[in-house]
Design goal:
Chain lengths: ~350, ~350, ~325, ~325
Amino acid sequence: MTTGAPKSTTERTPTRNSAIERNFALTDEQLLEMYGKMLLIRGMEERLGADRAAGNLPGGVHLYIGQEAVAVGVCANLEDQDWITSTHRGHGHFLAKGGDPNAMMAEIWGKKTGICRGMGGSMHVADVSKGMLGANGIVGGGLAIAAGAAFGAKLEKKGRVAVAFFGDGAANQGVFMETLNISTVWGLPLIFLCENNLYGEFTPSRTVTAGNLVDRAKAFGIPCTVVDGNDVEEVWKATAVAVERARAGAGPTYVEAKTYRFRGHMEAERELLAGGKYREQEEIDEWRKRDPIDLLKRRLEASGRIKVQTLKEIERRAAYRVAQAAAFAEAGEPADPDLSADLMFADHKA
Amino acid sequence: MTTGAPKSTTERTPTRNSAIERNFALTDEQLLEMYGKMLLIRGMEERLGADRAAGNLPGGVHLYIGQEAVAVGVCANLEDQDWITSTHRGHGHFLAKGGDPNAMMAEIWGKKTGICRGMGGSMHVADVSKGMLGANGIVGGGLAIAAGAAFGAKLEKKGRVAVAFFGDGAANQGVFMETLNISTVWGLPLIFLCENNLYGEFTPSRTVTAGNLVDRAKAFGIPCTVVDGNDVEEVWKATAVAVERARAGAGPTYVEAKTYRFRGHMEAERELLAGGKYREQEEIDEWRKRDPIDLLKRRLEASGRIKVQTLKEIERRAAYRVAQAAAFAEAGEPADPDLSADLMFADHKA
Amino acid sequence: MARKRYIQAVNEALFEEMERDPKVILFGEDVELAIFADTRGLLDRFGRDRIRNTPICEATLTGMAVGAAASGYRVVLHMMFANFVYTGFDAIANQMAKLRLMTGGQMNLPITIIAGYGGGRSSAAQHSDTPYPLLMNLGGINVLTPASPADAKGLLKQAIRGHDPSFFLEASGRGAEMGDVPEGDYTIPFGSASILQEGSDITIVAIGTMVRHALAAAKQLSEWGVSAEIIDPRTLVPLDETSIIRSVEKTGRLIAVDEARDRCSAASHIAAIVADGAFHALKAPIKRITVPNVAMPYAPNAERQIHPNPDKISVAAMNMLGRQIEARPS
Amino acid sequence: MARKRYIQAVNEALFEEMERDPKVILFGEDVELAIFADTRGLLDRFGRDRIRNTPICEATLTGMAVGAAASGYRVVLHMMFANFVYTGFDAIANQMAKLRLMTGGQMNLPITIIAGYGGGRSSAAQHSDTPYPLLMNLGGINVLTPASPADAKGLLKQAIRGHDPSFFLEASGRGAEMGDVPEGDYTIPFGSASILQEGSDITIVAIGTMVRHALAAAKQLSEWGVSAEIIDPRTLVPLDETSIIRSVEKTGRLIAVDEARDRCSAASHIAAIVADGAFHALKAPIKRITVPNVAMPYAPNAERQIHPNPDKISVAAMNMLGRQIEARPS
Ligand SMILES: Cc1ncc(C[n+]2csc(CCOP(=O)(O)OP(=O)(O)O)c2C)c(N)n1
Ligand SMILES: Cc1ncc(C[n+]2csc(CCOP(=O)(O)OP(=O)(O)O)c2C)c(N)n1
Ligand SMILES: [Mg+2]
Ligand SMILES: [Mg+2]
């Protein structure tokens, strides 16, 4: 399911194959680490879904359930100093990049202890200290921000890279083409990470998208890879190559992860649509059979190298971490209602 | 210099080859008509250059000199009921689409007798009755307007088509990709007419553009043609095919005309740049050898079918038409200074 | 007359106008399943030629609205949340608002853009903006802020039948509010404010969602012996300056209540108009009750803190009248 | 002190700040050859890492400014004409103006956006807008309107050294105007208006290009025996409300002169502030001299008709003072 980069590009980037060589094998530790992260994201999201249903959250949430392999597979290649920009579906990216579950949960609860002090909420979780420049309420809004961070990284010459997560729907925004162009011309250390989950809100991508998204990136002559987004190892490998290229100064790469969201576009979607339908239950069931977490778990079990207790212990720890985060959020004080005027500007009060 | 459309597309459009067949030959009348139009545009532009230098024009002008074959070759395939959108370099498009030289000249002089009553000026010449929806001061601004007109045309089912003229610089604006996508998905009767004159203002395209522009359009699976923009027959042929497809309901086509502007980005460019340079005189001289008007004239002379006096007569008439337009403009009353408040809204005063 | 929800009134107006004129077309992101329910059912009735989902590409959608309108259609463009108007702002500010003048009047642009605006639901900064001050300053664009189901129906039908670009701004999250809606062919001319309550002590001009707060405040005030006149401009472009000035000439006092950020708000402009046109009648400083110059915070308490509410209005009114009362805890 | 052209002052400020701090970078369309001459020479001195031409893609340039600033650089983005700000408006209104709040203060965004604004040169509607009312309403963005070469230098240096997004708005076509400019390290704190002329009869607040007209009007007025106080806010965000209010408390009269369209203009907001804060000192209606709510026409006479000028100001002042004079033909 992987399409290679155009010849010319491969030539421009000798590091590529060696990279694949060296990065090919993931250690068991790495795989177990990823397993734990995916479980953490899943657990946090399920808890948020329940909290939303229970009326505990002031705002809405867009859950990432089903796409965990993408965020985790990508961010396993990144350091804290590397940048990512995210989307309205950003909890998974936040956690995969090393963001604190407590602070994220508290943020979504609107608490003073939230990572954004309760000012941002679900669609704006950010942790700049971890290189997470923020979820984004504007579809496509993260692309140019990531390109700007990549420009900074290039000037700085410390080998930092930037990853822009965006969806198949965002790929129809003009900034996608604009950032492909400028990042290619300027040779920016930027990875275009398209999470193609087949839908934008309630619109099937194929009904609003011409051709294959990957061809749009190929037109700029950069390496492009399409991977199974539910296979964390595939995602990790493709990103490893892209990150290596970026660090080596060889410019941007496009990586498309084919994946699927199991939940609605947002929680309480059914009530919102009042019986309206945009996909079939069969489709959801089919994809659930390829749940990225189950896939990895089965693979680990099949390997024979991992003890059952080891997995159980990881699952237990993830569940505990989620409970901890929820407790922390619930216990937090409400946000400071007078804060906004102080935060608008660094140099003066709004 | 012509790249065919992707196979799949050709299949989608059986009309294509037959179209080429039928449209291949231009009659002498048609060629002479085009010759006259190109001379008219050239003459009007040279006159505007002189008027600008003489301080007769209130505002600046971006001249089309050197690109006449594109506007004329394209518009020869269009009826008044077809739509075009233009650019900041729009005088040629206006005239090629059948706009009145007097009214255009008067507009640029800021007169009441101007096509836009003196309210628009050079960058906004429009004649809706001729399907000319306007020059545009916003780079890329015409693309979506043309797509909208094409959408209207499709709903109307009268075989109207829309042509969006835009430059190589505009092709880096995201609306280019957005309109390619939506017009392909919706099968709009739209022709993307890229006038690639190698520069955007004082920036060589290659320094800000990744890959070949045509590949951006190919990514959407529509037919794409790149032609010699200084050869009016080539331009006409490529557009004839595209227009035929559009009228037949087969959707959009991308046509790229490689051409060159002989004058500066705008008049008085030299003073503006104070010695700054962005291209070599040799390059200009090289292109001047391929002046689209000379090319056609030599071809007509070589054909042996056209009398010298015939050409002379056409040249005389064009020159006369220009003089007429200039006289009309100069004689016109100043614009009505109170008009603006009446024009902002159709239904009430501003 | 029948009691209807705000969103039903909008939906009804769309049905009626699309029935009435085959040249009316509607497009936008997810208008088919209708995330706000306002376009629900239109697809089944009118088919995809006249209503359809678009790709996510606001910059092109606003430009296409211009082109489709120029080519003879009456375009309704649904932009979902008002913040996304910024994403498609170029064709609004540079084309839609200027083309009629630039072409010397050659073009009419019958375009109605629907968008949900305003805060109060913890939707955070990128889904809570109140953009009408920006739109008002552009010129060339009508700005409608219907506060009731009836006004929603009447103004939307008027906009769709008109010949100019209009923004129809629905208050987000208020679609369920009920009100009496005239049946059938009901339109409201632009530029005619409605005086919702007559009064003699103070004029309160309120916009959109703020109208409800102003009416609540008026009730409080009447209990406290203050007679407030409540005016809803209903359209900000064109603006019924005469009704506002006439009212202040009667009451001598003005509070302008606006959900927009204060700086260059509609409230500021209304205050400026009155400070010029009704100056000699003024008995007290003109007060503005607006949102401070901040982005909308997420936390409910922070949002509540900065939002106008009935108590803020009634307290301001009492202070203007020189009567001291304790503000109830809001 | 040395006499310099406005554009030289801007150019000098850019040179000095780029010398001073290697983290300052500048990009935009055609900044290398410098269509406005303000960035001329920077490339030779600082090289392409720090100053470079971009493709034409405003939507991305404004977003990249945010990303580059978040990653530790001080970004100067040149957007040429202010109308193109609309093309890149999404990242300005939805990201730049809101990110600091949305992230709970995790980000500083030291971004300076340079753009030429205003009419008067027959550049027509798409090259003549005066966008500061829109920017003022966004919140989160400083808005600078330097009227003199000295202010241009001092405010630009302050903006580049600051930690927040700022719009530096140059009056288009006025780059050749001369003025005394302090040498070297000269900065002007934001939010401090300059009182260009003291007076006792009337306060005239003028913005950007209008300052020159106000000073000319003041001369006329003094000949007619009227003493006008001229105030240039210099920055509209933050706005020095105190200086304006104090002045009106002294003179009792206000004219706000603004090149923006009238509706929700800076003039409207200043009038609103005074109608509240200096109400009891007011002796006459507050007048606004602005551009009507139209797109800028091309024809010079039509443009002249709607543009503020010294005569419009002085005549308005005389009328406010109840003295009849004939307006000179402008
Ligand atoms: C500029 C903008 N337009 C529209 C929306 C409304 N919206 C929110 S999510 C979404 C769909 C995005 O689809 P995709 O990029 O595929 O992300 P996914 O939801 O599938 O993760 C839309 C249209 C928005 N938030 N911003
Ligand atoms: C949105 C926008 N950005 C920038 C400009 C300034 N500008 C005017 S023409 C031009 C170059 C356009 O290049 P191209 O599209 O190739 O057209 P050409 O001038 O070569 O005919 C630029 C950057 C503009 N008018 N509009
Ligand atoms: Mg998707
Ligand atoms: Mg060009």
